[in-house]
Amino acid sequence: MRIDSCRNCGNALEVKKYCQVCTQPIQFLCSQCAHYADDPIHSVCDLKLHIGKQSVA
């Protein structure tokens, strides 16, 4: 599920932080109420999983 609006006030969220591995947005900030939200989908970053498998092999 993609994060598009603040769960606290409904305002649009701004990207606050990007993943250093795949550059996908991982943290969002609401400019109206200052509520932070993390992207729950990003925890399964395909690139991160791929790199982890290479280091184990």
Structure description:
- It is built from 1 helix and 3 strands; from the N terminus they run E-E-E-H.
- With 57 residues, the chain is an alpha+beta fold.
- Strand 1 (13-18) and strand 2 form a beta hairpin.
- It starts with 12 loop residues before the first strand and ends with a helix.
- It has one helix at residues 46-56, and strands at residues 13-18, 25-30, 36-38.
- It has one domain (13-56).
- Helices cover 19% and strands 26% of the residues.
- The longest helix is centred in the last third of the chain and has 11 residues, at 46-56.
Would you spell out the secondary-structure blueprint of this structure?
Elements: E1 13-18, E2 25-30, E3 36-38, H1 46-56
Antiparallel strand pairs: 1-2, 2-3
Question: Going across the major beta sheet, what is the strand order?
Answer: 1-2-3
**What is the number of beta strands?**
3
Give, in order, the helices and strands: EEEH
| Beta-strand content bin | 25-35%
Main features:
57 residues
Question: What's this model, at a glance?
Answer:
The protein is built from 1 helix and 3 strands, in the order E-E-E-H.
